[in-house]
Amino acid sequence: MTNQIAIALGLVILGLFGLDAIVFDWSNSVFLGKKFTEFLKWIAFWR
Length: 47
Prior knowledge:
mainly alpha
């Protein structure tokens, strides 16, 4: 992965978080965070 690709992906991710914050009041980020937490518990990642 080149630096240009990494920067572009980072900007896209930050843009999506910004869009979620402005338009959807963080509902998508909270939903994904909860699902990720459930997924970590399901696979027992820490064991």
